[in-house]
Amino acid sequence: MSGFARPLKIALGLAVIAALIIVPMNFNRYGLFILSQWAVMSIAAMGLNLTLGYAGQVSLAQGAFVGIGAYASAIMTTHGWPLPAAIVVAIALSFAVGWVLGYPALRVQHHYLAFVTLAFSTLAFLVFRNESWLTGGIYGISNIPRPHVFGLATNKPLPFYYVCLGSLAIVSVAVWWLIRSPWGRAFMALRENPLRAQSLGIDTRRYTLMAFAIGSALGGVAGALYAPLTQYIDPVPFNLSLSLDLLMMVIVGGAGFYFGPFLGAMIAVLLPEWLRFTEGYYLMLYAVAVMLLLIWSPTGILGILDRYLAERRTKAASALRAVAKSRLETAQ
Amino acid sequence: MSAVLEVTDIKKNFGGISAVDGVSFDVREGEILGLIGPNGCGKSTLFNCILGQLTPSGGEVKLDGKLVTGLRPAELNKLGVSRTFQLLQVFPKLSVRENLILAGQEHQGNMASRLVGRSDAGLTDAANQMIGFFKLDHLADEPAGGLSYGQQKLLDAAMAFMGGPRLVLLDEPAGGVNPSMLADLKERLVAINREKNATFVVIEHNMEFVMSLCSRVMVMAEGKVLAMGRPDEVRKNPAVIEAYLGH
After folding, report:
1. Does A198 contact B53 at a Cβ distance shorter than 8 Å?
2. Beta-carbon contacts of residue B192 (< 8 Å; ≥ 6 apart)
3. pLDDT (tens digit, 9 = 90+) per residue, A240-268?
4. What is the pTM of this model?
5. Where do the DSSP E strands lie in A199-257?
6. Three-state secondary structure call for residue B173
7. How much is the average pLDDT of A95-104?
C-alpha cells in the first residue's frame, strides 16, 4: 500500500473509522445486524489471512474455529459467566486446538494440508451436532445473553454493534502489531522459502504451529461474538461452507494484504444484500462476479491496487532516469 | 590454529548409490577452504549433511569439538553456522532490507522479545551497513525478487553474514555472477574473513576464483576426497588433473 502520502493515509483511515461509528446510528435493526456480522467475519477472516495469506498454510477449518468459539461462548454465557471470560476461554481453546491442527502442516503442504483441515472441519461439525449433552445437538442453544459493558446493556442492536466494532478494532491493532513484528516477518519467510528460513535460524516448526494457533484463536474470538450477536446457535452455520466462505473472503480481498479481510468480508456479507433486488439471481451474479475477479486478478482486489501502485512507481522511476540521462547528454 | 569444524567419515546413501562415501576433513579457524570436484561428486550433499538438511547415513560432525551430527538447520545456525545456496534462495516479495533483517532476527533476543519488541529487532543499522558493504544501496527498498541474478547472489551472501556466523558454507557463490561483480564479491569475502575472523568453506567451479581466494583446497571425486592441500599443490596433483582439471 506504499505510494500514498502518509497524512493522506491517516486522514482516510480516520474518515473510515468515523463513518463506521456515526453512519450506522440511524440504521435499522437489520442493517445493524449485517454490519455487526461484517465486523465478526472480518475478525475470523483476519485470522485465516494470518495462517494462509502471511504464513502460507492452507486451512479449510477456520469455520470450525468460529464454531468452537461460538459454542464456548454460548455454553458459558448461558450458565451465567460474563462474555469477556467466555472470550478468554474461546481464545485459549481454539489456540490449543489450532496448535494441534498445525502438526499435520509440519509434514504435508498445499492441497494435502487442505484435505487434512477439511477432515477436521467435518469432525468439528459432527461434535457440535452429536454431542447434544454439551451443545444441544440439532436444537442448538438459544437465549444467549448479550453482555453489559461498563454497566450498559447491549441488548439493543446499536450498542452490540459497537461491541463488535470495538472488538474488531482491538484485533486489528493486535494483528497489525504482529505482522510488523519479527514474528510476522518469520511467517512470511515460511510462505516464501521455508528451506532458506531454516538455514537462517528460523524455527519453522514453532512458527508454523504459532501461525495456525493464532489464526485459529482469532476464529475463536469471532465465534465468541457471533453467539451473542445471533443469540441462538445450532451446528449448521459452522459447517464446511463457512470455512469456504472465509477462504473466499481472504482470497477475494487479497491474501497477504493487511486490509484484504476487511474488504473480503464486506463483499461476502454485503454484496448478497445489495444484489437482493435481483431476487433469485443474486447468488448467480455473485458467483460470476467472484469468478471474473479471480480471472482478472488472482491476488484479489488489493492485488489490483498493488499492481497499479507498482506500475506508477516504475513509471516515475523511469521518468527520473530519462531526465537524468538527458541531463548527462546535455552536459557532454 | 584449532579446528572449527571436524568432519569424520561422513557417508550418505541414496538407495544403492553412495553420494558421499566416507569423507573426513577439518576446517581451521579463520581459513578459507575451497571445495572443488566434478558435477555430481557429492559436494552439495556433503554440505547438506554437515548443515543438517540431510541426515548422514554414517559418520560425525563436530563444531568446536562438540558433536552436532543430526541437529536441525535452524539449531546449527543458532550455533553460528551459516550458508548460501547454489540456486537462488532469497525471499522474493520482501525488500532487500527486510531480507537482511529476517536473516539476523532469530539471533536477537528470544521468542517473546521478538513479539513485543522492536519490529526491526534492532537490526536496521546492521542491515544498512551490510547493504552498503555489498553495494546494494540503490536497491535497499526493492523487492528482492526484482533484482538481477548476480545481485540476488550478493544478497544471498549478505544474508549469510547477518547473524554474525563463525563458519559460513558457500555453495557456488560465483555461479552466474559477472566478472566485475565477482571481483567485488571476492573482495567482500576476504574483508569479512579478515575483519570478523569468519571461517569459510567455498564450493566453486570457477578455478581462478577458488585458487586466488582459498588458503587450502579439497578435491572430491565420486563421493571421496581425492586431494587436499595448498592451491598450487592441488593444481599440480596428477590425480586431480585426471579427474577434474583436465590437461
Report:
1. yes
2. B161, B198
3. 999 999 999 999 999 999 999 999 999 99
4. 0.91
5. none
6. coil
7. 96
